Design the sequence.
């Protein structure tokens, strides 16, 4: 099975821009989806597809892909963006899903 | 708005079988190309995909759990279920049920239920 790799932790100053990355072979075939999880809560979808935001996701969140690497960018990070972020995708050739290990974002 | 709710025992003894059910409301489990998933999160750890089931009964399992895993769907009750056999303390986790779209994005999650494996 394939894997998705994320940096364990990233920090950003309040109001600055931060990029969280996700790397894996499946991303050459499928776009990554991104989830935000705050302590004690279920994850919520923030980005999916090429760069789509569900209703409720602030427009400071955006997604992109280059080769086997997907990125979640937060432009003008806010205190409420401090959370764990996970990427996922389908595995190539089937409906199996795979998650990245997660990135803990700290807003300074 | 689709809503998912997990139910089942919060405590399971080692070597026994963990059984959870997810009840879907606000939408039909047979609609569209959605597939219905179980995902777990061990304390302080990341998300782990367990497996998925289509309303037709087709299943996809995490290879690391496949030998112990059984997913099923009960369309008449708008429910799907997971059974994980021969559990150990390593299976202690918050278990989420969730709906995934064809592209693999998960748009609806249950609130999660903590299952502890302990004697």
Sequence:
């Amino acid at each position: 099975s394939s894997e998705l790799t994320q940096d364990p932790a990233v920090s950003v100053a309040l109001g600055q821009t931060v990029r969280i990355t996700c790397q894996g072979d499946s991303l050459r075939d499928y776009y990554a989806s991104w989830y935000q999880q705050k302590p004690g809560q279920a994850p919520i979808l923030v980005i999916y597809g090429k760069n789509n935001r569900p209703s409720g996701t602030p427009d400071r969140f955006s997604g992109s892909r280059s080769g086997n690497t997907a990125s979640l960018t937060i432009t003008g990070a806010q205190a409420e963006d401090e959370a764990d972020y996970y990427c996922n995708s389908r595995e190539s050739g089937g409906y199996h899903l795979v998650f990245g290990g997660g990135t803990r974002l700290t807003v300074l | 708005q689709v809503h998912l709710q997990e139910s089942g025992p919060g405590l399971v003894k080692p070597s026994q079988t963990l059984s959870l059910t997810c009840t879907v409301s606000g939408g039909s489990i047979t609609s569209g190309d959605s597939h219905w998933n179980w995902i777990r999160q061990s304390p302080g750890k990341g998300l782990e995909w367990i497996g998925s089931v289509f309303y037709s009964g087709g299943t996809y399992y995490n290879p690391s759990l496949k030998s112990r895993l059984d997913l099923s769907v009960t369309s008449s009750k708008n429910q799907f279920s997971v059974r994980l056999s021969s559990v150990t303390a390593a299976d202690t986790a918050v278990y989420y049920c969730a709906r995934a779209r064809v592209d693999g994005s998960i748009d609806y999650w249950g609130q999660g239920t903590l299952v502890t494996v302990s004697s």
